[in-house]
Design a protein that fits this description.
The chain is of the alpha+beta class and about 425 residues long. The chain folds into three domains: about 70 residues, LysM domain (Membrane-bound Lytic Murein Transglycosylase D, Chain A, Roll), CATH 3.10.350.10; about 120 residues, LysM domain (Membrane-bound Lytic Murein Transglycosylase D, Chain A); about 180 residues, Cathepsin B, Chain A, CATH 3.90.70. It contains twelve helices and 15 strands. Strands 7, 8, 9, 12, 13, 14 and 15 form a seven-stranded antiparallel beta sheet that branches. A two-stranded antiparallel ribbon has the order 1-2. A two-stranded antiparallel sheet has the order 3-4. A hairpin with a 4-residue loop joins strand 13 and strand 14. Helix 2 crosses helix 3 and helix 8 crosses helix 9.
């Protein structure tokens, strides 16, 4: 009997992942957690955590799952951290755990410069395996080994419109108030200044990042209250709001469509939360990073449920052909109804992914999902109000068709 028991104990020990020990602590995954957030919590790398549990670093974890937390061995605890290297062409392959902030420090380049070079926001989420362009890396390969003392160095000094500014916190200031004053998000300021919490103190010096992007032309966008040549339809007197949380573009767009009759806060309060964005908001509405899949936002059907609770009728568009979708947008604009449109941030190129949610369904999610409000259409394209920064932007019909396809031609009109 003892021999059998010894064999069973030996087999159970062998069953443990190679990088985990029998005395390693365990962690029960809570809703909204990711492999990366858990790794940061315990001070281990995402890859080590994945290895300890026999999964890949790109694997999803689910609420209730029990993970083994690896314990670093003595002979590896003092190993030097790897330094990011760009290729001779200036491209860098994103590794697990990389962030814009960490790459900024490694290469000695501002967060804004990297973000602008890759058409992502300064608080954008990075996906393992992505290739990023590192500005100046092709001409200065040694830059990664000689970072400046601060990652707030302005790399766009020749163009004052792109320069980051410095702000000294005054008595009574809050991070939210500072963000609104400078038309940036709280998350962007936190990332630019490596703030661990949203609290600031009097006299603190903050770098205010510039979030302007040249990825979408705005100079030729028709004004919301003027008729541009070749215009097909236009809705007058629609406000342009900036969303108050990182992932509330949908609710902000709905508030604009209602001309402020319902605030973003009221709509968010009426929304349900679900890991399925067709049912409600997926994830934390004010997560620090933008563009991920765990903290995501909601789809037209989920937004419609919240608006219905508030007594507002709406129509969703989903799954029709692009020709019919475009015709529906134009017809609504002609009837004086702006259109809430699901696209990607600045119409960036993305690849939709299917993710299994708690009810077993496979749901399509697209990195950098974003929602804007279309207010006008011309022969060339559409003009929209972007709640990310409160700007008025323009995109052509080719971009409109491409990014609409990521979401199976999704839109919502509220009455």
């Amino acid at each position: 009997m003892r021999r059998i028991l010894s064999i069973l104990l030996l087999l159970s020990a062998l069953a443990l992942p190679a990088s985990a020990r029998a005395d390693s602590p365990t962690h029960v995954v809570a809703y909204g957690e990711t492999l990366y957030s858990i790794a940061r919590k315990y001070g281990v790398t995402p890859q080590a955590l994945a290895n300890a549990n026999g999964i890949s670093a790109q694997s999803w974890v689910y609420a209730g799952q029990r993970l083994q937390i690896p314990i670093a061995s003595d002979n590896t605890s003092n190993a030097p951290a790897s330094v990011a290297q760009a290729s001779p062409s200036g491209m860098y392959l994103v590794r697990a755990g990389d962030t814009l902030s960490s790459l900024s420090r490694k290469f000695g380049i501002s967060i804004n410069a990297i973000a602008e070079a890759n058409n992502i926001p300064p608080n954008g989420f990075l996906y393992t395996g992505w290739q990023l362009k590192i500005p100046g890396a092709a001409n200065a390969p040694a830059a990664a080994n000689n970072p400046p003392a601060s990652n707030t160095t302005n790399t766009n000094a020749a163009d004052p419109s792109k320069a980051a500014t410095t702000y000294i916190v005054q008595a009574g200031d809050t991070l939210y108030g500072i963000a609104v004053k400078h038309s940036v998000t709280m998350a962007a300021i936190r990332i630019a200044n490596n703030l661990p919490t949203p609290y600031v103190y009097t006299g603190q010096r903050l770098v205010i990042p510039n979030t302007a992007s040249a990825s979408t032309t705005t100079n030729n966008a028709p004004s919301n209250n003027s008729i541009a040549p070749g215009i097909l339809a236009q809705v007058q007197d629609i406000p342009a709001y900036q969303q108050k949380q990182t992932l509330t573009c949908e609710e902000s767009a709905a508030s604009m469509a209602l001309r402020g009759a319902l605030s973003e806060e009221q709509i968010v309060a009426a929304m349900s939360f679900s890991d399925n964005p067709f049912e409600g908001i997926r994830g934390d509405t004010d997560f620090e990073l933008y563009g991920g899949l765990t903290h995501y936002g909601t789809y037209a059907q989920g937004l419609q449920k919240g608006l219905t609770k508030l007594g507002r009728q709406s129509t969703t568009y989903y799954g029709q052909s692009y020709a019919s979708f475009k015709a529906s947008i134009l017809e609504n604009l002609k009837q004086g109804r702006p259109v809430i449109w699901w696209t990607t941030w600045r119409e960036s190129y993305q690849t939709p992914q299917y993710v299994k949610v708690s009810n077993g369904a496979q749901v399509p999610l697209t990195p950098y999902e974003h929602t804007v409000l279309i207010v006008a259409a011309t022969n060339e394209g559409v003009t929209y109000h972007d709640p990310y920064d409160g700007s008025v932007r323009f995109t052509n019909w080719a971009n409109h068709e491409r990014t609409s396809g990521y979401f199976n031609n999704m839109a919502l009109v509220v009455y």
